[in-house]
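During the reporting period the student researcher (J.K.) took over the structure-prediction task from the postdoctoral fellow and processed the backlog of single-chain submissions. One of the processed entries is reproduced below for the supervisory committee.
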Amino acid sequence: MKYILLLITLLFSTLLKSQDKNLIKARTTLQNKQWARAQSVAESVVEDDKTAVEFWYIKASAEYEMSQMDKYRGGKVNYFKECGKSAVKARTKDVNGTYYEPYAKWMKAITQQNNKEAMAAFAQNSYAKAIQLYKNSYLLTGDTIAYGMLGLSYTKDRQERDGLKILKTVANWNFGAWSAQTCPGTFMREPFEILSNYYLGKGFFDSALSYTEMGLQVYSSNIILKNNIRTLINKDLSTAAKQGYNTAYLEVINRALNYFPADTTYLLTQNNYYLSKLGTLTRSKPWDEAGNMLWQFYLMKKEAVVKGVVNSADVFLIKDSTAFLYQCLDYFLRRNQPGSIAFHFKKWYAAQKGIAKVDEPIMESLLKSPPNTISRKLISILFADAREDYPKNKNISQYRLNFFNTWTAKPVKAAETYLQLEMCEALVSDFPKDKILPATLMKLLFQCTDSAVKDENMYSAWRYLNRLEALSPEAVAYDKLYKRVAERDFVVRYSKTRIVYQTKNGVKRAATGWDGSSNLCKAGSLPDSTLYKVIDRINYFRQNAGVKQPMALSMDKVKKCQEAAVMFAPLGIFSREPKPETHQCYTRNAAEAAANAQAILEPNPAQCVTIFMDDRKSDELINRRSILNPGSQYAGFGSAENNSIFWLLDLAPTADSAWYKTHFVAWPNRYCPKMLFMDKWTFSMDASLQGAEVKVFDETNTEVPTIVFYQPAGALNHPVLSFRPASELGDKKPGTCWQVKITLKNKKTYQYSVTVI
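J.K. obtained the following structure tokens:
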């Protein structure tokens, strides 16, 4: 054993002595620029001992020099490639850089040329070659950019897994260096862009957000990252909006403005958030909360202005607090929100006058003689607000009466008539013994109804007309006005709601603007223009028949009915219980609509409304009664190529239940166009109609033979009498008038006229 150890020691000693000699030879030949001999000596040593670090340096240096010489180019050995391998061996084995300095110039030259060739390979889409070259560059220098380019090369070479792993590391290095404000020259934008795009495309939104936000910290103006953060923010904004205007929604808006401080959409969205909150809070009057919200809104806008944000579309970008408050006041004035107007006026007035707040004495003083600089609309609102806040203050009530009398003494614009009407109604309550105010109220209701008719605002016209009738149910003075409303309503909400038919490729279709396809089971949607035409036509019949409350569109019902119309279109056969096995375009929404709605083989929804009102095939008149049911508040409908679905029946109790105990709903009623006189006439109210007597008289006061049917209320609000006057009604020329007399079993009598217009 001792002999063997001695032998090994002697051999190792001999080897060291041999390496020392070779090292001297290699160094000398390298210094003497004998590149081939230096390379040969170094190569012979590392073949036997791969740990001989300095020989790797010498080998790499010699090979580099040989790669630059013409006589070694184009031969069997690629000396630049070999020098790269040797240099990598030297650097990886010389962990502490002990031997590096004497060979630094060669190592730097090798790295520089390696980078050039790597860049050229990358530019020429030779990604496999670029991968190897960038590997060498990174191993030679530990350079972040080289490592990043290696990741890019892997990604371009479709080695996504390896590429993304490297790019994640580089992105984190870059962000860390940016955070520490070190090595700015090593930053790369591509890792952030690629990772952001990759995760966004895969739908991994949390990861996409992380790398996008990291990248924007380093490259705040990067277009790709900016576009991606906008996409992510818009997604978050849409999600948050479904939960309403809450703190999560505001956080997304503020995050958006952090990246896009002057963006019109985000600025206006921020405004909408605060203004909506203020509108809600100032209606219910939690003043402290509203004040805090207003102050927060102002600070957000002031901060943006201080930072230099400029956007002419955002009128709330104001630094001066008083001017900001005035802008808020103007906003709510334009939207006619009385509670919000009063709140913001008091805030603005206090700021302008330099006082803590507007209290009762200040408000009384202000309203005693309102300044001419304040609009009458604002004064009206301030009077109403003051009466609510200070109900025991008799002076304010008297000041309002004085103001009203002065105001109504002279002619005013139509817009002010509506304001006068509101004030007059309040004054009638405050001064019940005043004999002039009731007559003034009637006069103003006449004027407001007339103005609404001129503006073709039929919903308002009927609202005022109903109030007029409620004030004086026996009055006949407004019969001409009633006729005017009915005549104009026929034009506005019936004639103008017509949907024409068009023939395309020999097929006749209703021009509804529907963008779906039953062949593709694509529900699509009807444009707003069509939706509102149809709901207007429904409300034409309702309000002319005597129903006070118009129906509104339920977009949820519209969606479900549209899906049902598409579901039924291929078969053209309706079922209350469709199934996926029987209906190719089955959906749960469609099935719900099928169970509750009425189907009709008619693709024109406006025409459907008239067909439903006629309801000639039904003894129960369920379609007409659904339209005229006072409790029905929301309607929905949908139309496809060959059918329409209407969800009309709404079993909610009527809000005006007392009204229908003394007032009836009838068709035809009072003033009816000739074309809408249907064979079946109906009369309904909240009373016992069974056994009632119905008589119809012509212009000569001759009774017309009439057949009467009674239908109980069932699921609807009220029972109905259906009656069919005989054909002696004649041609129904305009101006022709009939009298209808309904006598209930309790002997109560209801009489009304029906005139052709």
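The committee noted the following: DSSP finds 29 helices and 15 strands in the chain.
J.K. will present the remaining backlog at the next meeting.
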